[in-house]
Amino acid sequence: MVAQRVIAVYPGSFDPITNGHLDLIERGSKIFDELIVAILRNLGKDPLFSVGERLEMVREATQHCPNVAVDSFDGLLVDYAALRQARVILRGIRAVSDFENEMTMALMNRKLDSNLETVFMMPAVAYTFLSSRLVREVVRLGGDVRGLVPPLVEARLRAKVG
Ligand code: PNS
After folding, report:
1. For the chain, first and last CA: distance in Å?
2. Best CA proximity match to 69, nearest among 117, 102, 33, 109
3. Rg of the chain over CA atoms, in angstroms?
4. Pocket, ligand 1, Cβ cutoff 6 A
5. Residue 94: active-site member
6. What's the 11 CA to ligand 1 centre distance in angstroms?
7. What is the spatial distance between Cα 18 and Cα 15, in angstroms, rounded to a whole number?
8. Measured from the CA of 80, which atom of ligand 1 is nearest?
């Protein structure tokens, strides 16, 4: 029997990508044949970076992972996963506080497509407090985010927020 290639989608806002996201991408790329980082296009919240900018940053930050592809999507995640023939949704859980929201999303996605499995992974402990929202806030208020985002993102944040 020939083993089937497992394609996973790692969806999110990535506004901007952080080292916590990158840590999860590197972990995911080791266990899935192909990992597609999928950036949500219709962000209700006013995004700091455009979809184009977020795509560029994620592409640059994941250049060293040959089996990682970067794309954007709109509409239902389950429809996008089916389009890309992905059987897995990858999500990160940083702390217990993430669990409830992630569980309801995973169960809703299972209800919408019972063939799709959500796999949770934990980032390195050093990133358990990290989120894109906090990074944006710290930068807006003049704080230092070195070591929390890839250097190219840090430069873009400085250029954008000043
Ligand atoms: O980085 P985020 O903001 O936590 O990512 C949330 C995301 C993009 C995974 C979620 O909002 C999503 O899947 N949106 C697509 C719309 C959808 O499929 N909704 C129903 C699933 S519960």
Report:
1. 57
2. 33
3. 16
4. 11-13, 40, 76-77, 105, 108-109
5. yes
6. 7
7. 9
8. 18
Query: What is the CA(1)–ligand 1 centre distance, in A?
Result: 35
Instruction: Answer whether 0.90 is exceeded by the pTM.
Output: yes
Output the DSSP codes for the chain. Answer: -PPPPPEEEEEE--TT--HHHHHHHHHHHHHSSEEEEEEES--SS--SS-HHHHHHHHHHHTTT-TTEEEEEE-S-HHHHHHHTT--EEEEE--SHHHHHHHHHHHHHHHHH-TT-EEEEEPPPGGGTT--HHHHHHHHHTT---BTTB-HHHHHHHHHHH-
Question: Which of 9, 13, 24 to probe ligand 1 with, by most ligand atoms within 8 A of CB?
Answer: 13
- The tens place of each residue's pLDDT in the chain, 162 residues long, gives 777 899 999 999 999 999 999 999 999 999 999 999 999 998 677 899 999 999 999 999 999 999 999 999 999 999 999 999 999 999 999 999 999 999 999 999 999 999 999 999 999 999 999 999 999 999 999 999 999 999 999 999 999 987
Locus of tokens 């996605």: 109
- Indicate if 132 belongs to the active site: yes
